């Protein structure tokens, strides 16, 4: 696909990355600096995808949380379809842990509070993230920022998904997403447990390697939580329970991690070696 110069009032200055749905550009416009996601041509040509993408855009516009990247604009009917979210000049959790190793327990606790608050807002808007993972968590200066919420569901309209491909990231998606294609808030809680385990240990809880091996371990084996600090271990284990009915909800997760409603990530929450990029 060729690189557009502008979309929806945003001037696109450079390519930030490329993923399963298309390319992401740095954009500048009246609404601010944005990460502008441009949908690839084969998805754009699928009417079912466009309809679902439009629905997800409408739902995402209702999400209000300091721990999500705000939606700044979108158009499901454009050619190509696009959406713009707040640009967060910060490394992802995957990048930070890859460079610096596991996070200290206090920062993991703050990370968990921020992610629980973000999921509460996302679920309150009627959205299930479906692909919460370290790459979709940015370590902003004033708290973590969850990105790409709702987008995986829009991609569910593709031919690949209808033929049985798994939507989400193996190693973090819940067992019921693998075996029954069920995507509910409890699945995001499972992913949250995996993200906290990764932050605390530097390892995904179901290991690495072949995709099919990761899916098998998720469904049939217990997560490896070696190295998760004791104050977090019980909560992480309960989030990763294979039975979604036994997992805590986001309110219970926040209560387990915090000392009160004002206990939350704020400016200065990151270790000194993890300033925003």
What structural category do the secondary elements indicate?
alpha+beta
- Counted by DSSP, the helix tally is 11
- Rounded to the nearest angstrom, the distance between the terminal CA atoms is 28 Å
Strand order in space, largest sheet: 1-2-3-4-6-5
How helical, in percent, are the residues?
25-40%
Shape: globular
What order do the helices and strands follow? Answer: EEEEHHEEHHEEHHHHHHH
Radius of gyration: 18 Å
Largest sheet: 6 strands, antiparallel
**Regions with little confidence, pLDDT below 50 for 5+ residues:** 156-164
Mean pLDDT: 89
Question: Beta-sheet strand percentage?
Answer: 15-25%
Number of E-type strands = 8
Helices and strands in order, then pairings?
Layout: E1 6-7, E2 10-18, E3 22-29, E4 32-39, H1 41-44, H2 47-60, E5 71-75, E6 82-86, H3 93-100, H4 105-124, E7 137-140, E8 143-146, H5 151-155, H6 159-162, H7 175-179, H8 185-201, H9 211-220, H10 230-239, H11 250-257
Antiparallel strand pairs: 1-2, 2-3, 3-4, 4-6, 5-6, 7-8
Helix pairs in contact: 4-8, 4-11, 8-10
């Amino acid at each position: 696909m060729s690189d557009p110069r502008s979309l929806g009032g945003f001037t696109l200055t450079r390519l930030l990355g490329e993923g399963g749905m298309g390319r992401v550009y740095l954009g500048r416009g009246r609404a601010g600096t944005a990460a502008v996601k441009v949908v690839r041509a084969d998805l754009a040509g699928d009417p079912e995808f466009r309809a679902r993408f439009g629905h997800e855009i409408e739902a995402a516009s209702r999400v209000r949380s300091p721990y999500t990247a705000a939606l700044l604009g979108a158009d499901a009917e454009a050619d190509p379809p696009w959406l713009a979210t707040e640009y967060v000049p910060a490394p992802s959790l995957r990048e930070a842990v890859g460079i610096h190793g596991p996070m200290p327990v206090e920062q993991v606790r703050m990370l968990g509070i921020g992610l629980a608050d973000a999921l509460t807002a996302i679920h309150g808007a009627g959205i299930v993230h479906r692909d919460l993972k370290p790459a979709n968590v940015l370590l902003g200066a004033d708290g973590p920022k969850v990105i790409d919420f709702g987008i995986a569901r829009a991609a569910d309209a593709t031919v690949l998904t209808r033929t049985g491909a798994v939507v989400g990231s193996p190693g973090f998606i819940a067992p019921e997403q693998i075996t029954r294609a069920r995507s509910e808030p409890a699945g995001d809680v499972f992913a949250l447990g995996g993200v906290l385990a990764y932050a605390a240990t530097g390892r995904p809880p179901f290991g690495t390697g072949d995709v099919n091996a990761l899916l098998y371990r998720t469904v049939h084996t217990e997560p490896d939580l070696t190295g998760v600090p004791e104050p977090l271990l019980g909560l992480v284990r309960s989030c990763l329970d294979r039975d979604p009915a036994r997992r805590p909800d986001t309110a219970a997760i926040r209560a387990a991690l915090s000392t009160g409603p004002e206990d939350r990530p704020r400016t200065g929450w990151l270790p000194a070696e993890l300033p925003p990029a």
